[in-house]
Amino acid sequence: MTGSAISDRIAQGSGRTPADTVIRNVRLFDLVTGTLLPTDIAICGDTIVGTLDSYEGVNVIEGHGRIAVPGFIDTHLHVESSLITPFEFDRCVLPHGVTTAICDPHEMANVLGRPALDYFTEAALRTVMDLRVNLASCVPSTALETSGATLGAADLLPYRDHPKVIGLAEFMNIPGVLNCDPVCMEKLEAFAGGHIDGHAPLLRGRKLNGYLSAGITTDHEATAADEALEKVRKGMMVLIREGSVCKDLRALAPLLTPVTSPFFAFCTDDRNPLEIAHEGHLDYLIRLAISLGVEPLAAYRSATLSAANAFGLRDRGLIAPGRRADIVLLDDLRECRVSDVISAGRLVNDALFAAREIIPAVGIDSINLPAPVTPRDMAMAGSGAQRPVIGLVPGQIITPFLHADLPVRDGMVQPDPAQDIARICVVARHGHNDNIGRGFVKGFGLSGGALASSVGHDSHNICVVGMNDADMATAVNHLEKTGGGFVVVRDGQVVADMPLPVAGLMSDAPFETVRDQLEVLRAAARSLGCTLDEPFLQLAFLPLPVIPHLKITDFGMVDVNRMELV
Fold this sequence. Notes:
- This protein is an alpha/beta fold.
- α3 (106-112) packs across α4 and α12 runs antiparallel to α13.
């Protein structure tokens, strides 16, 4: 703890001197028994020093009988996927009760390398919320795509003891771990004994045992109850994810009880300002869990104390003397209606955000195409034989491996609106080569036009989907002009766009602007017939060749089961 001497905390907690701050007349939600306990909460500096009693304070926050719960902890997210900078993320989600967020700058690191780690660790020192960093472990995430950077163990070690760094972020290279790849082993050994996040979709049985034996302790990729149950039984902390694209809470909620809650926490992974405006952040996950039948004690414990324990944050997660004063005041427990937030003993308001030192963004002008693309660059030559097609699963990033007979015109294989099959291309954008991967995808619902994104997990090349080669080329070239982002093109004209000039991943605008731009983009995508709720985030995940299904990279279509091009 910082901010006040131990002697001051003792004096204020024992009532010998008035507390710096008292939250008066609240009902504390007891995470031990699940009961509501009338109390004051005394705070000295950034530390809780008194509960279950009445206190006098220099400053008083009137509780008016509201319910006090610990600040929420998002255990795994990528700030970049919120499409805003860490400072706007801070301003966006802290009022929703998220007082601690554990981020993995994996996306920006795959574009920029170490400058991304420098930016996030420096920004984390200045946010009002406690933003913690897990170091990106998979840069690049795969040899099957062109990434912007490479980070080895020697690049990561200088950050290991940074005050905002927890450990190593999601270890996505499952084959590398199981086959003891030397690069993977070097990173795992460098961070052995510390925290190492997992990323193990569909991993079961002996392969899961081997993966866990590397010292990996968490997983946010469980999508089915039996998978999650095996993982917690084998000692993993399962982070139940509910983001803008990946939605696993409904499948896993039956497992979450007061008995099992020490083994589960919540995370958003990827959640944008539009969803946050419409639904909320971790407050939404808590609310949804309770509506699905999860007991409030289990939901709030997983969002706070269990999360803190899983990441070694022993100074928070409970409203109790000696803990960090991260407190959320609720108007309603079951609805998780947040009315006030206290972060490190400070009532969250506009003045706190205005007082921060904002550091300049990095990665401006990171879109480096060797030359403008042409409609012919988007086209795919071939005969009328069956073609591999990527399938979409709503609410998941898993992609079925499909086949379809597609029309051929002038020797070029065409998309087919009648089958809801569009062309998809991934265009390398880091300046290392001029690769373009071409394929087909089913499930966007497009009747014409094109959508493009410079957010393309995990290497963040430009991903474009469309029914028209000329519109697809126009969309790709437009993103180079804007420094990256999202764009909708119809009949050769830009219908809507959202620039993301910070590494081609984040806006430099306020989160309210990004929220409004996303509304316009969604409407523009619907005007092309798109049936997806989150077309751009769904598009962004299609070049993600790390789980056992068909993907597309700048090298081409990949059967990840066989780790080969098709």
